[in-house]
Amino acid sequence: MTELALEARGVSKSFPGVKALDNVTLRLAGGEVHALLGENGAGKSTLIKILTGAHRADDGEIRIGGLVTDISSPTAAMAAGVGVVHQERNVIRGFTVGENIVMSRMPLRGGRIDWTTVRSEARRCLAMLDLDLDPDTPIAELSSAQTQLVEIARGLYTETRVLLLDEPTASISGNEADRLFRVVARLKDEGAAILFVSHKLEEVYAHCDTVTVLRDGKSVLSSEPLANHSRDEIVDIMVGRSLASLEVPQRSIDRSAPPVLELRSVNTTAGHHEVSLDVRAGEILGLYGLVGAGRTELARAILGLERITTGELLVHGEQASIRSVRQALQKYRIGYVTENRKEEGVFLEQSITRNIAVTVWSTLEKTLGYVSGRRERELVESYVRDLDIRISSQEQLAGQLSGGNQQKVSLAKWLAAKTQILIIDEPTVGIDVRTKRAFYDLIWKLADDGLAILLISSDLAEMITLADRIVVMDRFAISGDVQNTHDYDSMSQSVIRLIHAELPVA
What we know:
- By secondary structure, the chain is of the alpha/beta class.
- It is built from 18 helices and 22 strands.
- The strands form five sheets. The chain has a six-stranded mixed beta sheet with strand order 6-9-10-3-11-12, with helices on both faces. The chain has a six-stranded mixed beta sheet with strand order 18-19-20-15-21-22, with helices on both faces.
- Helix 4 packs across helix 5 (144-157) and helix 14 packs across helix 15 (403-416).
Protein backbone atom coordinates (compact mmCIF):
# COMPACT_ATOMS: atom_id res chain seq x y z
CA MET A 1 0.00 0.00 0.00
CA THR A 2 1.24 3.50 -0.86
CA GLU A 3 2.34 5.41 2.22
CA LEU A 4 -0.21 7.97 3.35
CA ALA A 5 1.10 11.51 3.12
CA LEU A 6 -1.80 12.87 5.18
CA GLU A 7 -4.61 11.27 7.12
CA ALA A 8 -7.52 12.82 8.98
CA ARG A 9 -9.15 10.46 11.46
CA GLY A 10 -12.53 11.12 13.06
CA VAL A 11 -12.30 14.89 12.64
CA SER A 12 -15.23 16.89 14.05
CA LYS A 13 -15.82 20.62 14.32
CA SER A 14 -18.77 22.61 15.66
CA PHE A 15 -19.66 26.29 15.45
CA PRO A 16 -22.52 27.94 17.36
CA GLY A 17 -25.66 26.16 16.20
CA VAL A 18 -23.89 24.16 13.47
CA LYS A 19 -21.94 20.90 13.41
CA ALA A 20 -19.72 21.59 10.40
CA LEU A 21 -17.80 18.29 10.49
CA ASP A 22 -18.90 15.02 12.07
CA ASN A 23 -16.32 12.21 12.36
CA VAL A 24 -14.76 12.86 8.95
CA THR A 25 -12.08 10.58 7.53
CA LEU A 26 -9.71 11.52 4.71
CA ARG A 27 -6.62 9.65 3.44
CA LEU A 28 -4.21 11.22 0.94
CA ALA A 29 -1.48 9.06 -0.58
CA GLY A 30 1.67 10.35 -2.19
CA GLY A 31 1.62 10.32 -5.97
CA GLU A 32 -2.13 10.76 -6.34
CA VAL A 33 -4.65 13.49 -6.99
CA HIS A 34 -7.58 13.16 -4.61
CA ALA A 35 -10.94 14.87 -5.26
CA LEU A 36 -12.83 16.33 -2.30
CA LEU A 37 -16.43 16.83 -3.39
CA GLY A 38 -19.68 17.99 -1.82
CA GLU A 39 -22.31 20.67 -2.04
CA ASN A 40 -21.79 24.17 -0.67
CA GLY A 41 -22.01 23.88 3.10
CA ALA A 42 -21.00 20.20 3.11
CA GLY A 43 -17.87 20.96 5.17
CA LYS A 44 -15.11 21.03 2.52
CA SER A 45 -13.76 24.49 3.40
CA THR A 46 -13.92 23.75 7.13
CA LEU A 47 -11.88 20.58 6.63
CA ILE A 48 -9.29 22.45 4.56
CA LYS A 49 -9.04 25.15 7.25
CA ILE A 50 -8.39 22.46 9.86
CA LEU A 51 -5.73 20.80 7.69
CA THR A 52 -4.01 24.17 7.24
CA GLY A 53 -4.23 25.41 10.84
CA ALA A 54 -6.85 28.13 10.33
CA HIS A 55 -9.26 26.19 12.58
CA ARG A 56 -8.65 23.63 15.30
CA ALA A 57 -10.68 20.41 15.31
CA ASP A 58 -12.83 19.64 18.34
CA ASP A 59 -12.12 15.92 18.00
CA GLY A 60 -9.99 13.60 15.89
CA GLU A 61 -6.40 13.68 14.78
CA ILE A 62 -4.24 14.62 11.80
CA ARG A 63 -1.34 12.39 10.75
CA ILE A 64 1.42 13.57 8.42
CA GLY A 65 3.66 10.78 7.10
CA GLY A 66 2.08 8.43 9.65
CA LEU A 67 2.85 10.65 12.67
CA VAL A 68 0.20 12.48 14.70
CA THR A 69 0.80 16.18 14.00
CA ASP A 70 -0.49 19.21 15.85
CA ILE A 71 -1.42 21.70 13.15
CA SER A 72 -2.16 24.64 15.41
CA SER A 73 -1.53 27.45 12.90
CA PRO A 74 -0.88 28.08 9.21
CA THR A 75 2.82 28.32 10.07
CA ALA A 76 2.70 24.87 11.66
CA ALA A 77 0.95 23.50 8.54
CA MET A 78 3.67 24.89 6.27
CA ALA A 79 6.36 23.47 8.55
CA ALA A 80 4.65 20.07 8.23
CA GLY A 81 4.75 20.33 4.44
CA VAL A 82 1.11 21.24 3.84
CA GLY A 83 0.46 24.01 1.29
CA VAL A 84 -2.85 25.46 0.17
CA VAL A 85 -4.36 27.62 -2.55
CA HIS A 86 -7.64 29.00 -1.21
CA GLN A 87 -10.74 29.70 -3.29
CA GLU A 88 -10.90 33.29 -1.99
CA ARG A 89 -8.15 35.67 -3.01
CA ASN A 90 -5.55 35.72 -0.27
CA VAL A 91 -2.96 38.20 -1.50
CA ILE A 92 -1.65 41.52 -0.20
CA ARG A 93 -2.53 43.99 -2.94
CA GLY A 94 0.11 46.49 -1.81
CA PHE A 95 2.89 43.91 -2.33
CA THR A 96 4.60 42.83 -5.53
CA VAL A 97 4.21 39.45 -7.23
CA GLY A 98 7.53 38.29 -5.76
CA GLU A 99 6.70 39.43 -2.23
CA ASN A 100 3.36 37.62 -2.31
CA ILE A 101 4.95 34.39 -3.51
CA VAL A 102 7.67 34.23 -0.83
CA MET A 103 5.99 36.01 2.10
CA SER A 104 5.39 32.77 4.02
CA ARG A 105 9.17 32.33 4.26
CA MET A 106 10.84 35.60 3.34
CA PRO A 107 14.52 35.12 2.34
CA LEU A 108 16.84 37.03 4.67
CA ARG A 109 20.54 37.86 4.64
CA GLY A 110 22.18 39.58 7.56
CA GLY A 111 18.78 40.36 9.07
CA ARG A 112 17.57 42.10 5.90
CA ILE A 113 15.33 40.92 3.10
CA ASP A 114 17.40 39.31 0.35
CA TRP A 115 15.72 40.87 -2.68
CA THR A 116 17.88 38.94 -5.16
CA THR A 117 16.63 35.66 -3.72
CA VAL A 118 13.05 36.97 -3.55
CA ARG A 119 13.12 37.60 -7.30
CA SER A 120 14.93 34.38 -8.22
CA GLU A 121 12.61 32.21 -6.12
CA ALA A 122 9.55 33.98 -7.51
CA ARG A 123 10.81 33.43 -11.08
CA ARG A 124 11.39 29.73 -10.31
CA CYS A 125 7.79 29.27 -9.12
CA LEU A 126 6.33 31.34 -11.97
CA ALA A 127 8.34 29.30 -14.47
CA MET A 128 6.71 26.12 -13.17
CA LEU A 129 3.41 27.61 -14.36
CA ASP A 130 4.91 28.92 -17.61
CA LEU A 131 3.83 32.34 -16.33
CA ASP A 132 5.78 35.28 -17.76
CA LEU A 133 5.45 37.89 -15.00
CA ASP A 134 8.01 40.28 -13.57
CA PRO A 135 8.38 39.56 -9.82
CA ASP A 136 8.47 43.34 -9.23
CA THR A 137 4.98 43.85 -10.72
CA PRO A 138 2.46 45.10 -8.12
CA ILE A 139 -0.32 42.57 -7.49
CA ALA A 140 -2.86 45.39 -7.92
CA GLU A 141 -1.96 45.58 -11.62
CA LEU A 142 -2.84 41.93 -12.34
CA SER A 143 -6.07 40.50 -13.66
CA SER A 144 -8.16 38.18 -11.50
CA ALA A 145 -6.85 35.15 -13.40
CA GLN A 146 -3.21 36.23 -13.06
CA THR A 147 -3.70 36.80 -9.34
CA GLN A 148 -5.04 33.26 -8.96
CA LEU A 149 -1.99 31.87 -10.72
CA VAL A 150 0.31 33.86 -8.42
CA GLU A 151 -1.45 32.22 -5.47
CA ILE A 152 -0.78 28.84 -7.02
CA ALA A 153 2.88 29.81 -7.49
CA ARG A 154 3.00 30.69 -3.78
CA GLY A 155 1.72 27.20 -2.96
CA LEU A 156 4.60 25.76 -4.99
CA TYR A 157 7.23 27.91 -3.24
CA THR A 158 7.28 25.98 0.00
CA GLU A 159 7.96 22.63 -1.76
CA THR A 160 5.01 21.03 -0.09
CA ARG A 161 4.48 17.29 0.36
CA VAL A 162 0.72 17.87 0.46
CA LEU A 163 -0.90 20.53 -1.74
CA LEU A 164 -4.53 21.50 -1.17
CA LEU A 165 -6.21 23.19 -4.15
CA ASP A 166 -9.58 24.76 -3.33
CA GLU A 167 -11.43 25.64 -6.57
CA PRO A 168 -8.15 26.64 -8.29
CA THR A 169 -9.69 26.96 -11.78
CA ALA A 170 -12.82 28.92 -10.82
CA SER A 171 -11.64 32.17 -12.39
CA ILE A 172 -8.91 31.24 -14.85
CA SER A 173 -9.12 30.44 -18.56
CA GLY A 174 -8.85 27.03 -20.16
CA ASN A 175 -5.26 27.70 -21.23
CA GLU A 176 -4.31 28.79 -17.72
CA ALA A 177 -6.05 25.72 -16.25
CA ASP A 178 -4.02 23.53 -18.61
CA ARG A 179 -0.84 25.10 -17.17
CA LEU A 180 -2.01 24.29 -13.68
CA PHE A 181 -2.82 20.68 -14.51
CA ARG A 182 0.61 20.19 -16.11
CA VAL A 183 2.13 21.29 -12.79
CA VAL A 184 -0.23 19.01 -10.87
CA ALA A 185 0.82 16.05 -13.03
CA ARG A 186 4.51 16.87 -12.44
CA LEU A 187 4.03 17.13 -8.67
CA LYS A 188 2.11 13.85 -8.69
CA ASP A 189 4.97 12.14 -10.56
CA GLU A 190 7.37 13.52 -7.94
CA GLY A 191 5.33 11.86 -5.16
CA ALA A 192 3.30 14.76 -3.79
CA ALA A 193 -0.23 14.22 -2.49
CA ILE A 194 -2.72 16.66 -4.00
CA LEU A 195 -6.22 17.38 -2.72
CA PHE A 196 -8.39 18.91 -5.44
CA VAL A 197 -11.67 20.67 -4.64
CA SER A 198 -13.85 21.56 -7.62
CA HIS A 199 -17.49 21.70 -8.72
CA LYS A 200 -16.37 21.01 -12.30
CA LEU A 201 -16.81 17.25 -12.58
CA GLU A 202 -15.19 17.17 -16.02
CA GLU A 203 -11.95 18.38 -14.40
CA VAL A 204 -12.32 15.91 -11.55
CA TYR A 205 -12.69 12.93 -13.87
CA ALA A 206 -9.88 14.12 -16.14
CA HIS A 207 -7.27 14.57 -13.40
CA CYS A 208 -8.20 12.80 -10.15
CA ASP A 209 -7.47 9.25 -9.00
CA THR A 210 -9.45 8.94 -5.77
CA VAL A 211 -12.42 10.68 -4.20
CA THR A 212 -13.96 11.63 -0.86
CA VAL A 213 -17.49 13.04 -0.74
CA LEU A 214 -18.79 15.09 2.17
CA ARG A 215 -22.50 15.60 2.81
CA ASP A 216 -23.90 17.51 5.80
CA GLY A 217 -20.49 17.41 7.48
CA LYS A 218 -20.03 13.64 7.15
CA SER A 219 -17.77 11.64 4.84
CA VAL A 220 -20.34 9.57 2.91
CA LEU A 221 -17.69 8.28 0.50
CA SER A 222 -14.13 8.07 1.79
CA SER A 223 -10.94 7.75 -0.25
CA GLU A 224 -12.26 5.41 -2.93
CA PRO A 225 -11.03 5.00 -6.52
CA LEU A 226 -12.86 7.56 -8.65
CA ALA A 227 -13.07 5.15 -11.58
CA ASN A 228 -15.44 2.98 -9.52
CA HIS A 229 -18.16 5.64 -9.67
CA SER A 230 -19.92 7.28 -12.61
CA ARG A 231 -20.63 11.00 -12.64
CA ASP A 232 -24.33 10.38 -11.97
CA GLU A 233 -23.44 8.21 -8.98
CA ILE A 234 -21.16 10.90 -7.57
CA VAL A 235 -23.88 13.57 -7.95
CA ASP A 236 -26.40 11.28 -6.25
CA ILE A 237 -23.98 10.68 -3.36
CA MET A 238 -23.30 14.43 -3.04
CA VAL A 239 -26.96 15.47 -2.80
CA GLY A 240 -28.36 12.35 -1.14
CA ARG A 241 -30.91 11.71 -3.87
CA SER A 242 -31.10 11.37 -7.62
CA LEU A 243 -31.30 14.59 -9.62
CA ALA A 244 -33.27 14.34 -12.83
CA SER A 245 -31.70 15.66 -15.99
CA LEU A 246 -32.09 19.39 -16.33
CA GLU A 247 -34.84 20.26 -18.78
CA VAL A 248 -34.47 23.54 -20.65
CA PRO A 249 -37.84 25.33 -20.77
CA GLN A 250 -39.32 26.35 -24.10
CA ARG A 251 -38.97 30.12 -24.28
CA SER A 252 -40.20 32.53 -26.92
CA ILE A 253 -38.67 36.00 -27.35
CA ASP A 254 -40.42 38.71 -29.35
CA ARG A 255 -37.55 39.80 -31.59
CA SER A 256 -39.72 42.58 -33.02
CA ALA A 257 -39.93 44.28 -29.61
CA PRO A 258 -37.58 47.24 -29.14
CA PRO A 259 -34.38 46.62 -27.13
CA VAL A 260 -34.34 47.84 -23.53
CA LEU A 261 -30.51 47.97 -23.54
CA GLU A 262 -28.47 48.68 -26.64
CA LEU A 263 -24.84 49.41 -27.45
CA ARG A 264 -23.99 50.98 -30.81
CA SER A 265 -20.36 50.96 -32.01
CA VAL A 266 -19.06 51.47 -28.47
CA ASN A 267 -15.38 52.07 -27.73
CA THR A 268 -14.16 52.32 -24.13
CA THR A 269 -11.14 53.27 -22.03
CA ALA A 270 -10.82 49.57 -21.19
CA GLY A 271 -10.00 48.84 -24.83
CA HIS A 272 -13.30 47.78 -26.45
CA HIS A 273 -13.68 48.64 -30.09
CA GLU A 274 -16.90 48.94 -32.11
CA VAL A 275 -19.03 46.84 -29.73
CA SER A 276 -22.69 46.59 -30.71
CA LEU A 277 -25.32 44.44 -28.99
CA ASP A 278 -28.92 44.61 -27.78
CA VAL A 279 -31.13 42.80 -25.28
CA ARG A 280 -34.92 42.83 -24.99
CA ALA A 281 -37.30 42.52 -22.07
CA GLY A 282 -37.63 38.87 -21.10
CA GLU A 283 -34.49 37.87 -23.00
CA ILE A 284 -31.37 36.21 -21.64
CA LEU A 285 -28.48 37.42 -23.78
CA GLY A 286 -25.33 35.40 -23.14
CA LEU A 287 -21.96 37.14 -23.35
CA TYR A 288 -19.34 34.43 -23.80
CA GLY A 289 -15.57 34.49 -24.27
CA LEU A 290 -12.33 33.35 -22.72
CA VAL A 291 -10.96 35.02 -19.59
CA GLY A 292 -9.52 38.36 -20.70
CA ALA A 293 -11.90 38.78 -23.66
CA GLY A 294 -13.35 41.97 -22.14
CA ARG A 295 -16.77 40.76 -20.94
CA THR A 296 -16.63 42.00 -17.35
CA GLU A 297 -15.00 45.23 -18.50
CA LEU A 298 -17.93 45.77 -20.89
CA ALA A 299 -20.37 45.34 -18.01
CA ARG A 300 -18.37 47.90 -16.04
CA ALA A 301 -18.55 50.32 -18.97
CA ILE A 302 -22.34 50.00 -19.04
CA LEU A 303 -22.37 50.83 -15.31
CA GLY A 304 -20.06 53.84 -15.69
CA LEU A 305 -17.05 52.17 -14.07
CA GLU A 306 -15.18 52.34 -17.39
CA ARG A 307 -15.69 55.34 -19.70
CA ILE A 308 -17.37 55.01 -23.08
CA THR A 309 -15.25 57.17 -25.38
CA THR A 310 -17.28 56.90 -28.60
CA GLY A 311 -20.50 55.22 -29.63
CA GLU A 312 -23.88 55.13 -27.92
CA LEU A 313 -25.46 53.46 -24.90
CA LEU A 314 -29.26 53.43 -25.05
CA VAL A 315 -31.74 52.41 -22.35
CA HIS A 316 -35.35 52.00 -23.49
CA GLY A 317 -34.40 53.68 -26.74
CA GLU A 318 -33.05 56.84 -25.10
CA GLN A 319 -29.38 57.75 -25.06
CA ALA A 320 -27.95 57.22 -21.58
CA SER A 321 -24.89 58.66 -19.87
CA ILE A 322 -24.10 56.59 -16.78
CA ARG A 323 -21.36 57.65 -14.35
CA SER A 324 -21.87 55.27 -11.39
CA VAL A 325 -23.54 52.07 -10.20
CA ARG A 326 -25.88 54.19 -8.08
CA GLN A 327 -27.00 56.21 -11.10
CA ALA A 328 -27.36 53.03 -13.18
CA LEU A 329 -29.72 51.64 -10.55
CA GLN A 330 -31.70 54.71 -9.54
CA LYS A 331 -32.15 56.36 -12.94
CA TYR A 332 -32.03 53.45 -15.36
CA ARG A 333 -32.99 50.46 -13.17
CA ILE A 334 -29.85 48.49 -14.07
CA GLY A 335 -28.54 46.00 -11.49
CA TYR A 336 -25.24 44.11 -11.42
CA VAL A 337 -24.58 40.75 -9.76
CA THR A 338 -20.77 40.70 -9.68
CA GLU A 339 -18.58 37.62 -10.14
CA ASN A 340 -16.60 38.64 -7.03
CA ARG A 341 -19.26 38.16 -4.39
CA LYS A 342 -16.73 37.98 -1.54
CA GLU A 343 -15.34 41.48 -2.17
CA GLU A 344 -18.04 43.29 -4.15
CA GLY A 345 -21.28 41.29 -4.03
CA VAL A 346 -22.01 41.17 -0.31
CA PHE A 347 -20.89 42.88 2.89
CA LEU A 348 -19.50 39.84 4.71
CA GLU A 349 -19.49 41.49 8.15
CA GLN A 350 -23.05 42.83 7.84
CA SER A 351 -26.35 41.05 8.45
CA ILE A 352 -28.49 39.50 5.73
CA THR A 353 -31.04 42.26 6.40
CA ARG A 354 -28.57 45.07 5.75
CA ASN A 355 -27.19 43.34 2.64
CA ILE A 356 -30.56 42.92 0.96
CA ALA A 357 -32.10 46.25 2.01
CA VAL A 358 -29.09 48.43 1.14
CA THR A 359 -30.31 49.27 -2.38
CA VAL A 360 -33.73 50.45 -1.15
CA TRP A 361 -32.94 52.38 2.03
CA SER A 362 -34.01 55.63 0.38
CA THR A 363 -37.38 54.04 -0.38
CA LEU A 364 -37.78 52.70 3.15
CA GLU A 365 -36.65 55.96 4.73
CA LYS A 366 -39.18 58.04 6.63
CA THR A 367 -39.34 61.84 6.61
CA LEU A 368 -36.75 62.29 9.34
CA GLY A 369 -34.25 59.93 7.72
CA TYR A 370 -35.17 56.90 9.84
CA VAL A 371 -35.30 53.46 8.19
CA SER A 372 -38.04 51.35 9.72
CA GLY A 373 -36.65 48.09 11.05
CA ARG A 374 -40.02 46.42 10.61
CA ARG A 375 -40.22 47.39 6.93
CA GLU A 376 -36.64 46.20 6.42
CA ARG A 377 -37.44 42.82 7.96
CA GLU A 378 -40.63 42.40 5.95
CA LEU A 379 -38.83 43.18 2.72
CA VAL A 380 -35.99 40.80 3.47
CA GLU A 381 -38.35 38.03 4.61
CA SER A 382 -40.07 38.05 1.23
CA TYR A 383 -36.81 37.62 -0.71
CA VAL A 384 -35.41 35.03 1.69
CA ARG A 385 -38.59 33.05 1.11
CA ASP A 386 -38.85 33.57 -2.66
CA LEU A 387 -35.17 32.81 -3.36
CA ASP A 388 -34.98 30.02 -0.76
CA ILE A 389 -31.99 31.59 1.01
CA ARG A 390 -30.92 29.26 3.83
CA ILE A 391 -30.24 31.38 6.92
CA SER A 392 -30.52 30.93 10.67
CA SER A 393 -31.93 34.46 11.12
CA GLN A 394 -31.99 37.79 9.33
CA GLU A 395 -29.26 39.00 11.70
CA GLN A 396 -26.86 36.26 10.62
CA LEU A 397 -23.72 37.70 9.01
CA ALA A 398 -23.48 37.21 5.25
CA GLY A 399 -19.94 35.90 5.65
CA GLN A 400 -21.32 32.89 7.54
CA LEU A 401 -23.40 31.71 4.57
CA SER A 402 -22.40 29.17 1.94
CA GLY A 403 -21.29 30.46 -1.45
CA GLY A 404 -24.64 29.70 -3.06
CA ASN A 405 -26.58 31.53 -0.38
CA GLN A 406 -24.22 34.52 -0.57
CA GLN A 407 -24.90 34.69 -4.29
CA LYS A 408 -28.65 34.64 -3.62
CA VAL A 409 -28.25 37.52 -1.16
CA SER A 410 -26.31 39.47 -3.79
CA LEU A 411 -29.12 38.84 -6.29
CA ALA A 412 -31.85 39.71 -3.79
CA LYS A 413 -30.55 43.22 -3.17
CA TRP A 414 -30.91 44.07 -6.86
CA LEU A 415 -34.34 42.48 -7.16
CA ALA A 416 -35.47 44.49 -4.13
CA ALA A 417 -34.61 47.66 -6.06
CA LYS A 418 -37.01 46.61 -8.87
CA THR A 419 -34.36 46.42 -11.57
CA GLN A 420 -35.53 46.11 -15.16
CA ILE A 421 -32.13 45.23 -16.63
CA LEU A 422 -29.91 42.77 -14.75
CA ILE A 423 -26.27 42.03 -15.55
CA ILE A 424 -25.21 38.71 -14.00
CA ASP A 425 -21.46 37.98 -14.09
CA GLU A 426 -20.40 34.33 -13.55
CA PRO A 427 -23.54 33.43 -11.55
CA THR A 428 -22.51 29.93 -10.42
CA VAL A 429 -18.73 30.03 -9.87
CA GLY A 430 -17.97 27.86 -6.83
CA ILE A 431 -21.59 26.74 -6.45
CA ASP A 432 -22.57 23.09 -6.11
CA VAL A 433 -24.63 21.14 -8.63
CA ARG A 434 -27.98 21.31 -6.83
CA THR A 435 -27.74 25.04 -6.06
CA LYS A 436 -26.59 25.64 -9.64
CA ARG A 437 -29.74 24.05 -11.00
CA ALA A 438 -31.86 26.12 -8.64
CA PHE A 439 -30.09 29.24 -9.95
CA TYR A 440 -30.90 28.26 -13.52
CA ASP A 441 -34.58 27.98 -12.66
CA LEU A 442 -34.42 31.35 -10.91
CA ILE A 443 -32.76 33.09 -13.87
CA TRP A 444 -35.37 31.69 -16.25
CA LYS A 445 -38.15 32.86 -13.93
CA LEU A 446 -36.71 36.38 -13.77
CA ALA A 447 -36.64 36.54 -17.56
CA ASP A 448 -40.19 35.18 -17.74
CA ASP A 449 -41.19 38.00 -15.38
CA GLY A 450 -39.88 40.52 -17.93
CA LEU A 451 -36.32 41.29 -16.84
CA ALA A 452 -33.77 41.83 -19.57
CA ILE A 453 -30.74 39.77 -18.54
CA LEU A 454 -27.16 40.13 -19.77
CA LEU A 455 -25.47 36.92 -18.66
CA ILE A 456 -21.68 36.57 -18.51
CA SER A 457 -20.25 33.07 -18.04
CA SER A 458 -17.00 31.24 -18.79
CA ASP A 459 -18.83 27.90 -18.53
CA LEU A 460 -19.87 27.05 -22.09
CA ALA A 461 -22.27 24.30 -20.99
CA GLU A 462 -23.94 26.78 -18.64
CA MET A 463 -24.18 29.38 -21.39
CA ILE A 464 -25.76 26.92 -23.83
CA THR A 465 -28.22 25.84 -21.12
CA LEU A 466 -29.34 29.32 -20.05
CA ALA A 467 -29.06 31.85 -22.86
CA ASP A 468 -31.62 32.58 -25.57
CA ARG A 469 -28.92 34.11 -27.77
CA ILE A 470 -25.12 34.06 -27.41
CA VAL A 471 -22.80 36.94 -28.28
CA VAL A 472 -19.14 35.92 -28.46
CA MET A 473 -16.37 38.33 -27.41
CA ASP A 474 -12.71 38.04 -28.33
CA ARG A 475 -10.01 40.62 -27.68
CA PHE A 476 -12.48 43.29 -26.51
CA ALA A 477 -14.63 43.07 -29.65
CA ILE A 478 -17.71 41.15 -30.78
CA SER A 479 -16.73 38.31 -33.10
CA GLY A 480 -20.32 37.18 -33.77
CA ASP A 481 -23.60 36.02 -32.27
CA VAL A 482 -25.73 32.91 -32.61
CA GLN A 483 -29.30 31.98 -31.78
CA ASN A 484 -29.14 29.25 -29.13
CA THR A 485 -30.64 25.88 -30.04
CA HIS A 486 -29.52 24.37 -26.68
CA ASP A 487 -27.90 21.46 -28.54
CA TYR A 488 -24.48 21.32 -26.92
CA ASP A 489 -22.53 19.62 -29.72
CA SER A 490 -23.60 21.97 -32.50
CA MET A 491 -23.67 25.13 -30.35
CA SER A 492 -20.24 24.54 -28.82
CA GLN A 493 -18.72 24.15 -32.28
CA SER A 494 -20.40 27.38 -33.48
CA VAL A 495 -19.23 29.34 -30.44
CA ILE A 496 -15.67 28.01 -30.53
CA ARG A 497 -15.38 28.88 -34.23
CA LEU A 498 -16.38 32.47 -33.38
CA ILE A 499 -13.78 32.69 -30.60
CA HIS A 500 -11.02 31.84 -33.04
CA ALA A 501 -12.40 33.88 -35.94
CA GLU A 502 -10.25 36.68 -37.30
CA LEU A 503 -11.46 40.09 -36.18
CA PRO A 504 -11.64 43.00 -38.61
CA VAL A 505 -8.74 45.44 -38.41
CA ALA A 506 -9.74 48.48 -36.31
